[in-house]
Amino acid sequence: MDKLINLFVSSGIYQIQLGQAVMIAVGLGLLFLAIKKNFEPLLLVPIGFGGIMANIPEAGLALSAVENALHLGGPEVVQQLSEMLGVSGADPKAIKEAYAMAGQAKHMQVTQMAIDAGFNNGMLYNFYLISIASGAAPLLIFMGVGAMTDFGPLLANPKTLFLGAAAQFGIFATVLGAVGLTSLGLMDFSIQDAAAIGIIGGADGPTAIYVASMLAPQLLGAIAVAAYSYMALVPMIQPPIMRALTSEDERKVAMTQLRHVTKTEKIFFPLVLLLLVAMLLPDAAPLLGMFCFGNLMRECGVVERLSDTAQNALINIVTIFLGLSVGSKLVADKFLDVNTLGILLLGVVAFGIGTACGILMAKVMNKFSSTPINPLIGSAGVSAVPMAARVSNKLGLEANPQNFLLMHAMGPNVAGVIGSAVAAGVMIKFVG
Amino acid sequence: MDSPSLISEGFTLMLAGMGFVFVFLTLLVYATTAMSKLVNKYIPEAQPAAAAPAPSAAPAPLAQDQAQLTAVIAAAIKQYRANHKK
């Protein structure tokens, strides 16, 4: 009988907390959105599943060795930990705070002690350390994106880079929104948090994760989920804004056909971009460096195999680890928070402002440009490749069935990727 | 709570950030244009611009159809590729 009671006490049913139950429901919700509604399934399936696993009671898959020791260890283990950290009493909360404040050397020591006591990092925590905390996964994905990107449309019409720049205004406006909410006392974000939230407006998953892991790791789960869900919602968020800001005639504007871009130009472009980054903004070098590297592999034509791996096999493997690691951040005490609501809200605002600024910029450029520019391609400046470009194309076709904007919109679209990476570099430089 | 300084920090970040993004991308526009010019001047491709059909100078319906067809095919290829890469 005792054994039966023991079994029950260590079971999930007995141990589950309300927060964990809610988070498991959130994970299931993400799976539903991914499987049934086809929202960025490549990311949301691993994220949702990782979120469920992270909240399995007692398993501690998303916790570090120290957290596991605190949670599962007996009183003597907790006592040892509190002594080591110089905390009086055995209150787990106080110990956690002291641990968070302690330096790297102390961390190592405490972790070693927890490992000696027989506790280990959870599986998902290890994934997180390797893929996100090290910065590796977002950068490898960026390399893959580089290997998939064709800069042809951008090279044929370099002016579209301005559209990619304008759409980044959403990022910075959101930063302002986040600090505004904080000073009104509604939320509690530091300037670092605000910067990481703003990047959602860049509509670029890997960039958002990279910046969040550097500036606000505690918000990473919410930021990644917001970034990827809104990317999936681009076809719903953008069209109303695009219609409101353009007239029927403007949407009908046909653009001149893009000139032919030679292979040599395409090979030189990533090198030019890399040089500019190296000279002006070394903080964006990890992101744009990997991006340029991927693109050079694609365009140079002599490393077919590497390029193929970067844009298929490797990016898929990395996506699995990235998704699970992001899922590991969906633990109740970090996610179920009023700040998460704020992040979701600010994220959609960021998207809207970015879209609007891109369109307004395109309208201005249309006034001054020698060749006509359809304002609809401005909204593609919020990266989200290639979804945003397709939205521009679709609205263009609605207004004028002969008007194919897709290739024209790809220019601002990839410019948006560069723009948000530059914005990320600026953020890291200024507040990191 | 030192909220005024937080707000001003936000403003500084916005101005500096947007300014920098624009400066950077403007430089990139010039660098790219210059690069394209240089490349096309010194390393011209074997068959220059054979792929692009001549702009429809004659308003013949045939030429228009051709341009439209090219656009449709280009869009279809792009979409197919985009679908099969992610």
Q: What is the share of helical residues of chain A?
A: over 70%
Amino- and carboxy-terminal Cα gap of chain A: 57 Å
Task: Supply the number of helical segments of chain B.
Answer: 2
> Taking all residues together, what is the mean pLDDT of chain B?
79
| Number of E strands of chain A | 0
* Unreliable residue stretches of chain B: 54-58
Mean pLDDT of chain A: 91
Work out the largest interface and the residue count of each chain. Answer: A-B, 60 and 50 residues
Output the structural class of chain B. Answer: mainly alpha
Structural account:
The complex is a heterodimer of chains A (432) and B (86). Chain A has 432 residues and is mainly alpha-helical. Chain A has 26 helices and no strands. Chain A has helices spanning 2-9, 12-15, 18-35, 41-54, 65-72, 75-85, 92-101, 104-116, 123-133, 136-148, 152-156, 161-166, 169-183, 191-198, 205-215, 220-232, 234-245, 248-252, 263-280, 285-300, 304-311, 313-328, 332-335, 338-368, 387-399, 406-431. In chain A, helix 6 packs antiparallel against helix 8 and helix 25 (387-399) runs antiparallel to helix 26. Chain B has 86 residues and is mostly helical. Chain B has one domain. Chain B is flat and about 65 Å long. The chains are: A mainly alpha (432), B mainly alpha (86). The interface between A and B is large, with 60 and 50 residues.
Keywords, separated by commas or semicolons:
heterodimer; A: mainly alpha; elongated; B: 86 residues; 2 helices
TL;DR?
Chain A has 432 residues and is an all-alpha fold. Chain A has helices at 2-9, 12-15, 18-35, 41-54, 65-72, 75-85, 92-101, 104-116, 123-133, 136-148, 152-156, 161-166, 169-183, 191-198, 205-215, 220-232, 234-245, 248-252, 263-280, 285-300, 304-311, 313-328, 332-335, 338-368, 387-399, 406-431.
